[in-house]
Amino acid sequence: MEATVNGRCASLDAADPHTNALDWLRSQGLTGAKEGCAEGECGACSVLVAKPDSTGEGTTWVAVNSCLISALSLEGQEVVTSEGLGSADDLHPVQQEMASRGGSQCGYCTPGFICSMASEFYRDSRQACEHADAEHGPNGFDLHSLSGNLCRCTGYRPIRDAAYALGFPESGDALAARRTQPAPQAAPTRVSAAGATFVRPRDLDEALSLLAESPQAQLVAGATDWGVGVNLLRSRAETVIAIDRLPQLRELTETDEAVEIGAALTLSEIENRLDGSIPLLAKLFPQFASRLIRNGATLGGNIGTGSPIGDSPPVLLALEAEVILTSTSGDRSVPLADYFTGYRQTVRAPGEIIRALRLPKPLARLTDFHKIAKRRFDDISSVAIAYAVDVSDGIVTRAAIGLGGVAATPIRARATEAALLGQPWSAETVSAAAEAMSTEGTPMSDHRASDRYRRAVLGTSLPKFFESTMESVR
Amino acid sequence: MSSLSQRPMNPVVGQALSHEAADLHVTGAALYTDDLIERTRDVLHAWPVQSTHARATVTAIRTAPALEVPGVIRVLTGDDVPGVNDAGVKHDEPLFPTEVQFYGHAVCWVLAETLDAARQGAAAVEVDYEPLPAIVTVREAIAADQFQGAQPVMERGDLTTAFDSAAHVFSGEFEFKGQEHFYLETHAALALVDENQQIFVQSSTQHPSETQEIVAHVMGVASHEVTVQCLRMGGGFGGKEMQPHGFAAIAALGATLTGRPVRLRLNRTLDMTMSGKRHGFHADWRVGFDANNRITALDATLTSDAGWSLDLSEPVLARALCHIDNAYYVPNVRVAGRIARTNKTSQTAFRGFGGPQGMLVIEDIIGRCAPLLGVDATTLRHDNLYQPGQTTPYGQPVAQAERLGRAWNQLVDQADVSRRLREIEEFNATHRHTKRGMAITPVKFGISFNLTAFNQAGALVLIYKDGSVLINHGGTEMGQGLHTKMLQVAATALGVPLSTVRLAPTRTDKVPNTSATAASSGADLNGGAVKHACEQLRERLAVVAAQHFGVNPADVRFEAGVVSAIGSKAEPITWSDLTTRAYFQRVQLAASGYYRTEGLHWDSTAMQGEPFKYFAHGVSCTEVEVDGFTGSYRTRRVDIVHDVGDSLSPLVDIGQIEGGFVQGAGWMTLEELVWDESDRPTRGRLQTQAASTYKLPSFSEMPEEFHVSLLEQAHEEGAVYGSKAVGEPPLMLAFSVREALRHAAAAFGSPGASVNLGLPATPEAVFWAIESARAGHCGDDLRRDSNAVQPPRPDADAPAMHPLSEQMNEEHEPRQSMLEEPAKA
């Protein structure tokens, strides 16, 4: 049992199924990566992992929160930490820019920033662009790649300057060269220690039969939810089944009828592969947690937890998605609108795995995603609202609205949809439908927002959407 | 120019250098306290058993079930304490409480072979509680008359006459919450005991001397038996001034009792639920303006929400009172202060230390009253700035008042304010659902500890025969660049290149009796001490060099490692040549330096005097854009002009200004401490106890355009090499963000709306402000007659501020008794 860390073999023998990669790395003497929050919010634990690129032929250096993933999930994998990128007398270009521009003050968050920034430095598709904006540098650096890293000292400006000053990898850069070779295969793994078993099954069949044997087993893909529970609540499972690399869960296919997205593709992978072709999803991705989380999180996981405040369900509801569940007895398909049955309760039966999400075509023409949160990057929504509307000859011919954060489950705004369908797409219709919308769901008060505010923005969201669509309709 | 402030030719101070440890930071090689456990054998891990009540008597603790958990070695309880069972200097913070005082209070600690075993062990400990009534909010405390410590009053002039003759009088109430430090590195300590039972604690502490003192009194030993070292901190912000002591003491107690190293590191949840935060405040206020919109009278009572113990609440309150004027001249003042005792974490120092809370009150008053006076808030602020010759309400002359006006003008130029104000007006006239706002706010912040005794520092500078220099000083490095500055000061004072000087970790066995690295004073105090030590050495070396060159020692020059003499034809010699010569001539090459800030005096009972060496000044301008549908917003542009004197280290100083600003902006707009105020069993529980629920500024909150410049011609006579302190003052520059949001929200209503904007100004708070502006309800909560809100008078029987209130409690024996009769249990 070993992984390659900074080019050297490191034994995983000391790890048990609930040892996270961060603690394991630190136990190896690699204390550069830090624990700041243990829930994937601060990024101080960020490290690089070699993952397959979109062609499957090459490698992408993906930054992930090492506090969330299991150490055992790294069996056979290649990891690079801040220590592996450079040393004080031989700084990596990313380290050089950060050091010289005042990008570190206390330095505690810095190794994590370095890894997130290095991931973007090595992004194959990054290229210099003339249209730099508030979130993109002239070197094509996407600031969202740092959205999952918190710094309490600098105020971020020097970190942004460092990121935007980066060039491109020089020839002879070992990590750049590594990209042209395939990433390590997922290694079948089975380890029992400290009263728990970690399994990375060989294929979907093995996963399903394991699940049939132990229906209580914890399915884990990116561990962006499970890992939080392990760290903060000391959640434990007898059996953990890693499904993130099962090929059958990682397909993305498009036909004339539908787009089918594998449940174990990460949000970053989907974002790359779709490349904006589903505009509503393109609006979702930058608002979904942070890049570090999106590099691990999957749609299957976001649906599978059944949380009422996940950001993808409202969007997928608006897209009228179907959940494809698979088990030893084959596939079945459930409309997402019927999938959630109560707070963190779903129709998924023991023994079933979410294989894919199916988005029927044609897609609606007018779409938007309103996420109401305190913070624009990396926050959980107070209210999330997704729209998929078609207007033909001035009349609303289709209206699917998904809501999150206003009930025990994600819901469709049925009354609002009814108030829109067949009506002229006009300020009057919208005003009446907005009335209906403000009564959807049963919003609560909590530390994120009051019930009054949740209701109020339910009422203002549709007019906001209407305003934004006026140009495209005309 | 004073000798303290004068710079030699080509000084190393003033160069824009990266943080001295930047290369270690970026490569992950920099070590923090908890990184050391991987280099230490046989470490035990500590985990607390936390109270599940806001207040309760602990009637029984059963530790046996914990000891059955594999790996658990010992459970530490109050019975184990050989010395004083107290984690503070006020003797009101029992380390092991018999009555828990807040939800999450540590009852006892479990030591185990692994962190997981300690955690399971803690879950297995059985504690019986007898719940008691708890006070959770500041309003509840006020209603129950539950205060602690002093109730100071600061007065000047004649309020009655001033209010009687005022053209406009307004009164109101203002309440706001505190702020979590959220240093990225949580509290950590690692304690070891050597063969002589000497205790060595590695601690993430801003105040190693006090950590040492508390460890010693808990262990019942003298201070010289305890050494505390702080390599560096992953952020402090005041949160590690008082709070680390108890954690270090637990680790020391565990190490002493087990003979094994003990590591105590709080995870984020523990840190947030156990350690103190910025004080929230409640203010009742009454203000008078004359016909020219000059503030003529201010009557206010500030009540801080201090949590369960006194901690630093008295000096925090004193600083709040001393900063309620911010940058404005208020001729007639009466400000009273009270400290509410609530069943929450013990609120403590946080960047600004009460100053921000005081200043926020006057900025809120101005933001509310300007529309009612029919003047824009920027003009009102500008017209009330201190003018030369005026003094503060506590009697200190505002010696550099002209700098406020200069900084204001430099800012208005830099930010192109008049053009942009016109553009904002045009934008707002043409956009129904989106409005922009802009505000300019000033900062005047007093530098020095209010408690005069703290304004001293020591240093130890060693020169080795080869010329290499090692400096030790009492200040701690938490990211603020203190060590970088100290290296620059030493290199400048000795006339050597930066590479000649190294800096040793902060340890209590090198420099004793140090003050906390706090109050922005780290560079002023330690810089003075380092410079003093270096100058002694340079004088000794000048004598050696003078003999060589055949000149008077006063004619010897040290520059960049080369020693020469005016009027000598002899070739210059190298620094290392000189130090070797000095060694052979038996010249002492080590010196201890000392610095005390001159000219301070403070009568804390009368709240009068000159507690500050000088003021730091700054002005900021923020432009925001607000979405009327949701209240969400973005910060379009921020401009800052700030007074750092002659900067010791410009890259470091600009980093402090930007970082302070964004941290302040977080408090103004985003960061929200929510406590369970219900009557459920979870009453008193902190609901925002994680990064997922307590949101700090991220990249998305950074101003899209961010321009910071330093005030020109800003030499400071009273500080090392003409510099000024920079740690805290920039935090308050962020008030302009909230005021800009208020300005934008008002633009949704009719002119003259006095917008009541919640704090933090979250999208929800801004949304409600917009709604009230639209509905024309603004200002309903304010009173326009003089008798409406009468700020309550303080309790005449309350104790006065004790001049040594931070240090001593007279009811306790002086510490010297420890030496006479070691109280080892």
Automatic annotation (TrEMBL), chain A:
Single GO term (MF): metal ion binding
Transmembrane parts of this sequence: none
Keyword Lipid biosynthesis: no
High-level lineage: Bacteria, Bacillati, Actinomycetota, Actinomycetes, Micrococcales
SMART domains in the cross-refs: CO_deh_flav_C
Alphabetical keyword list: FAD, Flavoprotein, Iron, Metal-binding, Oxidoreductase
Boundaries of every FAD-binding PCMH-type domain copy: 191-364
Nucleus recorded as keyword: no
PANTHER family membership: XANTHINE DEHYDROGENASE SUBUNIT C-RELATED
The 2Fe-2S ferredoxin-type domain, residue ranges: 1-85
Protein name according to UniProt: Xanthine dehydrogenase small subunit
One of the Pfam families matching this protein, by short name: CO_deh_flav_C
InterPro entries the record matches: 2Fe-2S-bd, 2Fe-2S-bd_dom_sf, 2Fe-2S_ferredoxin-like_sf, 2Fe-2S_ferredoxin-type, 2Fe2S_fd_BS, Beta-grasp_dom_sf, CO_DH_flav_C, CO_DH_flav_C_dom_sf
From TrEMBL, chain B:
Cofactor (UniProt): Mo-molybdopterin; Mo-molybdopterin cytosine dinucleotide; FAD; [2Fe-2S] cluster
Aldehyde oxidase/xanthine dehydrogenase a/b hammerhead domain: residues covered: 27-133
Keyword field: 2Fe-2S, Iron, Iron-sulfur, Metal-binding, Oxidoreductase
NCBIfam families on file: xanthine_xdhB
Keyword RNA-binding: no
A Pfam family recorded for this sequence: MoCoBD_2
PANTHER family from the UniProt entry: XANTHINE DEHYDROGENASE
Protein source organism: Rudaeicoccus suwonensis
Region annotation Disordered: where it falls in the sequence: 779-825
Record-stated family: Belongs to the xanthine dehydrogenase family.
GO molecular function: 2 iron, 2 sulfur cluster binding; iron ion binding; molybdenum ion binding; oxidoreductase activity
Record bears the keyword Repeat: no
Name recorded for this polypeptide: Xanthine dehydrogenase molybdenum binding subunit apoprotein
